[in-house]
Amino acid sequence: xxxxxxxxxxxxxxxxxxxxxxxxxxxxxxxxxxxxxxxxxxxxxxxxxxxxxxxxxxxxxxxxxxxxxxxxxxxxxxxxxxxxxxxxxxxxxxxxxxxxxxxxxxx
Length: 107
Prior knowledge:
mainly alpha, 75% helix, 0% strand
C-alpha cells in the first residue's frame, strides 16, 4: 500500500502530457500499477479482523464495511486516472495534428 502511494506521487510527476509522450505513457502505467497496489493493500488490510484494519473504515471501527468503502475509493481513483489518460492522449493527438498542419503550410 505504501508502494502504491509512492507510485501515485511518481505518476503525478510523470503524468503531465506536455513534457513528452514517453513520460506520459510511463506516468499512466505507474498510475495504473499504483491503483492496483492500492486495491491489493485495501484488500489485505480490509480482510484482517483486527482494530488497525479500521483505518480504512469511515467510523474507525474494525474491518466491518471498510472493504466496500476502500474499493469505492480505488474505483474513483481508477476513473480519474482513465479521464486523465484520455485527456493526455487527446492532447498528444492534437499536438501531432498541429505539427503536421504547420509542416503542410510550409510546403
